[in-house]
């Protein structure tokens, strides 16, 4: 018989924390509770996910017990077109929380990755349920690698321990994360979804480097200029600033297409 989740009561974001030993996805758990009327601030954490999700249908995996895996329910009273900056705001909170607990410096890779020394230590995924005029709910999935060895992670990933040699208790990082997330979320709501993005810009990875963004089979390459006030990526393409609202960002120029086959 499966064990029941443990429940911790705190304040504000994290007023209720459900802790599970294993689950398919904490995002699915929060979504289920949200459909049942759960209030804003519910948090679900798990020791292990068997079907964790990343962007563009990719999976998020980490050895059992080696990561902080959690999802948060938000219900901002804003029109849907004001949500575009929320992933950036949440990314700042994750970076700040990691730095609160470990002697590292975090950079942010648009739209939702946290880097240490050019390697991914954390990722965020946002799912929003909206109507034409309002937001019903936002579910944020957050994964932060704590203690895994680099060889046990995906290529290009790292953990706080691998990057710093410091072992952080998951509970300590969760406390820091919820505090930082509440502060950043309050600023986001107070600004009606149009917060000052200077904290994100100050951490921007790949700034002024040649990059490629790919979305739905379309590639755009140029020099990364920054982000607009609504969170869109700005790329300088041959002297013209292009706005990118979705896609996968990678370092380097667009590769040349293959040439014609020779006899």
Task: Describe this entry's structure for a reader.
This protein is of the alpha+beta class and 263 residues long. Helix content is 21%, strand content 33%. The protein has an eight-stranded mixed sheet, with helices on both faces. The chain has a five-stranded antiparallel sheet with strand order 12-11-10-9-13, with no helix packed on it. 38% of the residues are buried.
Provide a quick synopsis of the model.
The chain has helices spanning 26-35, 86-101, 160-164, 170-190, 198-201, and strands at 6-9, 16-23, 43-49, 67-74, 106-109, 113-116, 119-130, 135-145, 210-215, 218-227, 233-237, 240-244, 248-251. It is an alpha+beta fold and 263 residues long.
Q: How is this fold's topology laid out?
A:
Blueprint: E1 6-9, E2 16-23, H1 26-35, E3 43-49, E4 67-74, H2 86-101, E5 106-109, E6 113-116, E7 119-130, E8 135-145, H3 160-164, H4 170-190, H5 198-201, E9 210-215, E10 218-227, E11 233-237, E12 240-244, E13 248-251
Parallel strand pairs: 2-3
Antiparallel strand pairs: 1-2, 3-4, 4-8, 5-6, 6-7, 7-8, 9-10, 9-13, 10-11, 11-12
Helix pairs in contact: 2-4
């Amino acid at each position: 018989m499966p064990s029941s989740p443990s429940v911790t009561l705190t304040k504000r974001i994290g007023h209720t924390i459900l802790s599970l030993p294993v689950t398919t996805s904490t995002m699915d758990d929060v979504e289920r509770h949200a459909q049942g009327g759960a209030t804003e601030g519910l948090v679900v954490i798990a020791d292990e996910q068997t079907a964790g999700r990343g962007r563009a249908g990719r999976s998020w995996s980490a050895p059992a017990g080696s990561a902080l895996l959690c999802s948060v329910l938000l219900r901002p009273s804003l029109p849907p077109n004001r949500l575009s900056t929320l992933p950036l705001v949440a990314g700042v909170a994750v970076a700040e929380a990691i730095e609160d607990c470990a002697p590292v410096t975090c950079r942010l890779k648009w739209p939702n990755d946290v880097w240490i020394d050019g390697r991914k230590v954390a990722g965020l995924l946002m799912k929003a349920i909206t109507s034409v005029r309002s937001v019903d709910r936002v579910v944020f999935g957050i994964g932060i690698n704590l203690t895994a060895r680099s060889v046990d992670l995906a290529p290009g990933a790292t953990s706080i321990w691998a990057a710093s040699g410091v072992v952080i208790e998951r509970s300590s990082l969760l406390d820091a994360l919820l505090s930082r997330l509440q502060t950043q979320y309050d600023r986001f709501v107070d600004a009606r979804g149009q917060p000052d993005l200077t904290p994100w810009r100050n951490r921007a990875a790949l700034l002024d480097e040649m990059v490629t963004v790919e979305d739905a089979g379309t590639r755009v390459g140029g020099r990364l200029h920054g982000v607009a006030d609504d969170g869109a990526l700005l790329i300088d393409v041959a002297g013209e600033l292009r706005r990118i609202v979705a896609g996968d960002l990678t370092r380097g120029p667009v590769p040349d297409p293959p040439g014609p086959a020779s006899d």
